[in-house]
Structure formats: structure tokens, C-alpha cells
Amino acid sequence: MSVNEEFITIALSKGRLLSETLQILRASGINIPLDLESSRELYFELSEQNLRFILVKSVDILLFLEKGIADLGVVGSDLLSEKGEGFIDILDLKIGQCELCVCAKPGINIRDVKSVASKYPVITKKYFDQQYHDIEVIHLNGSVEIAPVLNMADCIVEIVQSGKTLVKNGLIVYEKIEKISAKMVKRKKSLYEKEKQINDFLANFNNYFYNINVSSKL
Residue 69 to residues 53, 65, 73, 204: CA-CA distances in angstroms? Predict the structure, then answer.
């Protein structure tokens, strides 16, 4: 890249995906400091590669993209399904894999459900409207599993990875809505003057991913 080019800004989740995301970026040739995870830095630049990284909460990444602060972002496909209409899904990084599921106490008939608690009100309403009937969606930001335990909701729609939290709260999976993984995304409306620069970066990154996938199958 030319030193005269602008920085490409990439928003990363500072949560559970960060370590795996940084491993992929480093393996693709990006010189990310090895001590980044322990440094507590939320912003850093790689001037020799014209790259800038910002570390934010996963739920805020799409907002940073929408406002034009970031050019690219790594975000869970659950957030894209919930509020990602203005963004392009570029590449599945195949990390942070889990499932979005309908969960409830044993013995519940999902067809009789009237209220559902979830961090994903849009996905939840759409799913039940299409599969069953209109329901009340109770929007919670965390500790969703407690809602059926306290009879706040008949069931929940939540991310399931190991299932341990469900078991501890006496819940089981009834239906799987969609598989979730981390995606590299960008805005549908990118800044024209940076479009070629962004596309060149993505072409190199995609090529790296293609090569490692081919190698893994040999």
C-alpha cells in the first residue's frame, strides 16, 4: 500500500471472539502486536500497512460501520440477522460458531407459546410469525435463561454453544433457528475514495482464506 493512502479502519469485538479473530488476522500477514489482548488498548494503528483497528462491544460494531467510523467489521451473524440490512456479508470466518435456538422447560408445547424472551426481538418475532403465530416478545439484554424460570416468558430465543447454562436453569432446546458464526462485513455504501483500497485488502484477505481452506482439504 502507498503511504499516501488513507487508513482502512476495522472494528473488532473485544469480547469472546477477539483472540480467534486476532489469530486469523496475524496469520493473514497483518502485524498485530502479540500483547494486544493484555494491553487493554481499544485503538491502534499499523502505519506500515495503512490499517487502523478499534475494539468495541460486539453490539456496537454495526453502529460504527453505519456512522462511517469503521470501514469493515467482524461481527456475529446473529447481529447481522437482527439489524444488518445496511451491510454486506463478505466472508464467513468460521469462528465463534454456535446456534440460535428456541428453548424452554421440558413439556412445553411451542405452538401454545404466548410470550418469548430474547436479546433478538426482530429474529424472534419473524420466526414465530412465520412458523406459528403472533407472540409477545420480551426484549432482555442479558440473563435471558431466567425468564422461563420466573414465569416471565413461556420460552426464550437464545444463543446456545455448550448448553451448560440451559441445563443449570432447567431448560432444553426445542428448535434450532439458525447457525451463528463470525463474519467480515462492510457497509453497502462505502466511501467512494476508499473503495479500491478496501476491495484490494478484501481480495488479499479472501485469497488467504481460500488457500488455507484448500490446504485443509488436501
Answer: 11, 6, 11, 22
